[in-house]
Design a protein that fits this description.
Layout (H helix, E strand, L loop, with lengths): L9 H71 L41 E6 L5 E5 L29 E3 L32 E3 H4 L2
C-alpha cells in the first residue's frame, strides 16, 4: 500500500491488460477475416480461369468447324468444277488457292487457314490412293468438349474422342458414295470410304515457309 493507506495502481494495470487482450482478440479476428477474404478471392479467380478456358476452347471448336467446313467446301468445288471431262481432287492444298487446271487465277479457298486448336498451319490430309486430297483434319489429340448436336455435314463427329477424329472429308464422287443431289445424299460427311488413307500424311505450312 502507499503511504496514505490506499492500494497501489494494480487495478489500473489490470484494466490495461484487459484492454490489451481485447485489442489482440480483435486483431486475431481481423487476420482470420483477411485470410478468408484472400481465400475466397483465390477461389473466385480460379473459377473465372476455368470458365474463361472453357469458353476459349468452345470458341476454338466453333472456329475449327468453320475452317474445316471451308476446306471441305473448297475441295468439293475443285472436284465438281473440272476443266475437261475428268473430275479430280487437288494434289496439294495450294491447288485450292490457285487451280492449276486453269490458265488464270481460279480460287476455291481464300487462304490456307491455321488449325484453330493448335494455332499452326499443320493439317492431317485424307487422300485417295492416287494422291488426291479429299479432306483435312486437326492433328490435335485433345478431347473435344462438343460431342453431339452437330449439323448434318458434321454428324460423323458425334462422340469422337479427339479433334483428330473430326475429318472434314468430301466423299462425293468416290466409289460407293452418292453424288450431290442424288437420293439419300444430304451433303453429309461420313467416314472416309474404303481405300482412303490418312496415315502419316501431313500438310505443314510452317515448314513450307522456311
Amino acid at each position: 500500500m502507499s503511504g496514505n493507506g490506499q492500494r497501489g495502481a494494480a487495478p489500473r494495470r489490470l484494466s490495461v491488460c484487459r484492454g490489451c487482450r481485447s485489442i489482440r482478440s480483435q486483431e486475431g479476428f481481423t487476420y482470420i477475416g483477411v485470410l478468408l477474404a484472400v481465400g475466397l478471392i483465390g477461389i473466385q479467380l480460379a473459377l473465372a480461369g476455368v470458365v474463361w478456358s472453357f469458353a476459349q476452347t468452345r470458341q476454338k471448336e466453333r472456329e475449327l468447324l468453320s475452317v474445316g467446313g471451308q476446306f471441305r467446301t473448297a475441295i468439293s468445288q475443285y472436284y465438281l468444277n473440272p476443266k475437261g471431262p475428268q473430275k479430280e481432287y487437288p494434289r496439294r492444298l495450294e491447288d485450292l488457292l490457285k487451280d492449276p487446271r486453269y490458265p488464270g487465277t481460279v480460287r476455291h479457298l481464300r487462304k490456307i487457314y491455321a488449325d484453330p486448336i493448335t494455332g499452326k498451319k499443320r493439317w492431317g490430309l485424307v487422300r485417295l490412293p492416287n494422291g488426291g486430297i479429299v479432306g483435312v483434319y486437326s492433328l490435335s489429340d485433345e478431347a473435344p468438349i462438343k460431342t453431339g448436336n452437330f449439323r448434318p455435314a458434321d454428324i460423323s463427329f458425334t462422340n469422337k474422342k479427339r479433334y483428330a477424329d473430326w475429318k472434314f472429308v468430301h466423299a462425293f464422287g468416290t466409289q460407293g458414295v452418292a453424288a450431290p443431289g442424288a437420293p439419300g445424299s444430304q451433303g453429309v460427311s461420313g467416314p472416309p470410304p474404303s481405300g482412303i488413307s490418312s496415315e502419316s500424311l501431313v500438310y505443314d505450312g510452317e515448314e513450307n515457309k522456311k
